[in-house]
């Protein structure tokens, strides 16, 4: 376990909490990856693969949350414990999702593709997105969605594979373009899920 995590979580498990703002900044991990040293023993990509062992990530997350639970903190340190617990939650939710993970990694390199203003101008891609969106909206039953979902799952897998290669080779421009593509495909998946929940096709941003 990395020293920042060991110190922060160790203090929680002993129910002792840091009161100095400076000390807190030194103790609390600064990167999402720092919270999960067993999952990322070598650190983030390119030192590790883009897709982590999700079972190990989940296991480590549950262990951290058990040790850092705010109920273990004395009243005077409740807010600090809640903040640390929230950081752990945020780190886990980010790293277990391929799109959020890619966006976070890119943000660590000063590249922001996290909002809808980040778009691609490739007409062929946009046409494919529009056709997929229309297919979901026109689906009449769940059977109609089987092929649509299978095709979109292939798109997602392809984007994740390209992202894995791009981050491994530290090709950030390539990773940024593919992260934007992945956002389109994930939006289509959300649209499919929305249809299944009786909400009709979800909104797919362009």
UniProtKB/TrEMBL annotation:
Protein name as it appears in the record: J-type co-chaperone JAC1, mitochondrial
Keyword Coiled coil: yes
Start and end residues of each J domain: 31-108
Biological process per Gene Ontology, one example term: protein complex oligomerization
Alphabetical list of SMART domains matching this protein: DnaJ (SM00271)
Family: Belongs to the HscB family.
Keywords: Chaperone, Coiled coil
Domain of life: Eukaryota
GO molecular function: ATPase activator activity; protein-folding chaperone binding
Parts forming coiled coils: 122-149
PROSITE patterns: DNAJ_2
A GO-annotated cellular component: mitochondrion
Organism this protein belongs to: Passalora fulva (Tomato leaf mold)
């Amino acid at each position: 376990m990395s020293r920042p995590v060991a110190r922060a979580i160790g203090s929680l498990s002993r129910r002792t909490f840091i009161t100095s703002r400076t000390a807190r900044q030194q103790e609390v991990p600064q990167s999402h990856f720092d919270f999960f040293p067993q999952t990322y023993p070598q650190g983030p990509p390119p030192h590790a693969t883009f897709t982590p062992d999700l079972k190990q990530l989940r296991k480590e997350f549950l262990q951290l949350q058990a040790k850092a639970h705010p109920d273990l903190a004395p009243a005077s340190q409740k807010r600090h414990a809640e903040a640390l617990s929230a950081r752990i939650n945020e780190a886990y939710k980010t790293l277990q999702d391929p799109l959020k993970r890619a966006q976070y990694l890119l943000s660590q390199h000063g590249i922001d593709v996290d909002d809808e203003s980040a778009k691609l101008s490739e007409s062929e891609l946009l046409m494919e997105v529009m056709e997929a969106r229309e297919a979901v909206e026109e689906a009449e039953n769940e059977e109609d969605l089987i092929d649509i979902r299978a095709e979109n799952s292939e798109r997602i897998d392809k984007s994740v594979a390209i992202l894995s290669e791009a981050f491994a080779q530290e090709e950030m421009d390539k990773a940024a373009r593919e992260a934007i593509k992945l956002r389109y495909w994930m939006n289509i998946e959300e649209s499919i899920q929305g249809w299944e929940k009786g909400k009709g096709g979800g909104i797919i941003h362009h």
